[in-house]
Fold:
Amino acid sequence: MNEIKQTELYNVAIRQFNEGHQQLVQVINTLYLESRDSNYDRMAQKLIVSLLAKFARKHFDAEEGFMKRIKYPDLDKHQQSHRVIYTQLLDLESRLQQDTGPVADHAFQFLLNWRDEHPLTEDKLCAEYALKFSVCGYGT
Structure:
């Protein structure tokens, strides 16, 4: 895997969402750098994933708060998606804490899936709703 970049493809037209997604990319790259060496520091991975769980909670709360303010009609579905991602993240954190062998590949795949699927589908739908009804005011 090479370092990934946040391209315009991931722009969802809501600044706070985009900033959070950029932070996610930075975490993915940091985790990659910490584990690409065969002598990687598992403690560093544990710390990164633990910080990622805190980041995710804050990011999801901010997204959901925004959606409540604009009365987004699919808020419940979006919250469920957040719960699934967060549960998977906590599972990953638990696997790292239990020291059950290498999980870096699993971690990268999980993070890349999160980055590729959620913003490009559900976050974009919310942004389209916000822009369509001119409730955004949070442009990129």
Notes: The mean pLDDT is 81.
